[in-house]
Amino acid sequence: MRAQWNSSSQTLTAKAPARQLIANTSTVEYTEPSFVQIGDWVVCMVRSDVIGDPHGRLPSIHYWWRAYETNPTIYKQTLNIKASSHHLLKTSDGKVLLTYGDGAITTRPTKGLLISNPADVWNLGTPTPIYDLGTEDSANPSSIEMPNGTFYTTGINTKTRAESPYGGTLWLISSTRADYQ
Q: Residue 53: its pLDDT value, please?
């Protein structure tokens, strides 16, 4: 194990260098980090919620910093999306495909954004709808890029066997760069 958190003493024991980026407060909880490296930059996104409120989704936070600096400046942007279970995919052309469950909607339909400037302030534009189960939670996407430039994003059907003869199903939904314009 490279690091272990001791909740009783509120300390981190690390066998390797560790650096705290953010910390929960008495009212805000940060969860579900996702990050990728783009050239000399690390790009990170974190979910934020109001503690104790299951519907208290706050805007997600985007961080970026230089990967090889000892004490890099960490840049921060509050995003105008309430993403949950998000995924960042570094694309072959140096962009980032962000797929996420839209936490502003109860069923968290999966949406996507192609970020052309990942190591800077993100210009989000309009999200592209990818998958919507309609009546239940349909988030937790993950994406890949195929050699021909097509993206595949997972969509999960969370139904139980009692609700559907097949129970939950996993779908691969395809999209292209043109879908994110």
A: 79
